Amino acid sequence: MLTLMVEPSLQLRQFDRSHASALFQVIQSNRNHLRLWISWIDGIHSQQDAEAYILRSLSGFAGRGEAHFGIWNGPALVGSVTVERLDEQNHSAEIGYWLAQSHTGKGIMTKAVRTLIDYLFMELRLHRIEIRCEKENRASQAVPLRLGFRLEGQLRQAYLKQGSYVDICIYGLLAADWSTIH
């Protein structure tokens, strides 16, 4: 499985079956915090559900369409960062992420996303990366802004969340932009 070093005590490790227990535990202990922004959290009710999620992500990786990484702070799983909708023809992808509430506000997500961006631009030779965030999720929007992404637009009522449609902001970053700011 792929591991990306963020710093000595912080790693991105591609999820595998052995991570199911840790994934379920971090979701379970952060369920109320995460469900504010992530609808699929309500589908994880057991360690078996977490394992099924991981197996689906591995299938997506095998199909070269996505990759799901756990964010490990020392021995503890504290969140996730994913590559979604990897488009080899157009050399683009989308990044998504979440973090345990006790680890927010410490710069962990910005460091994790920066490391993943380096990998996507340098190793996979992507041309473009997008991050989509709910309009109301200011903490999530701060990550792409800190990393030099540009707000490219807003999709009105684009996602159905808990029975209501919400607006989504789209942030984009080109490889050429990254090379000049990083």
Overall form: globular
Cα distance, first to last residue? 27 Å
Helix content: 25-40%
- Give me the CATH superfamily: Gcn5-related N-acetyltransferase (GNAT)
* CATH hierarchy class name: Alpha Beta
Structural class: alpha+beta
Radius of gyration, rounded? 16 Å
The low-pLDDT segments are: none
* Cross-sheet strand order for the largest sheet: 1-2-3-4-5-6-8-7
Approximate strand percentage: 35-45%
Largest sheet: 8 strands, mixed
Count of discrete alpha- or pi-helical segments spanning 4 or more residues: 6
In the CATH hierarchy, the third-tier topology is known as: Aminopeptidase
- List the helices and strands in order: EEHHHEEEHEHEEH
Average residue pLDDT: 93
GO molecular function: protein N-terminal-serine acetyltransferase activity; protein-N-terminal-alanine acetyltransferase activity
Protein name: Ribosomal-protein-serine acetyltransferase
Domain N-acetyltransferase: 10-172
Pfam families: Acetyltransf_3
What can you tell me about this protein's structure?
There is one protein chain. α1 crosses α3. This protein has a single domain, classed as Gcn5-related N-acetyltransferase (GNAT) (Aminopeptidase), CATH 3.40.630.30. It is α+β, with helices and mostly antiparallel strands. The protein has an 8-stranded mixed β-sheet, with helices on both faces. It has 6 helices and 8 strands; from the N terminus they run ββαααβββαβαββα. The two termini are 27 Å apart.
Task: Describe the structure using short key phrases.
182 residues, alpha+beta, Aminopeptidase, eight-stranded mixed beta sheet, 6 helices, Acyl_CoA_acyltransferase
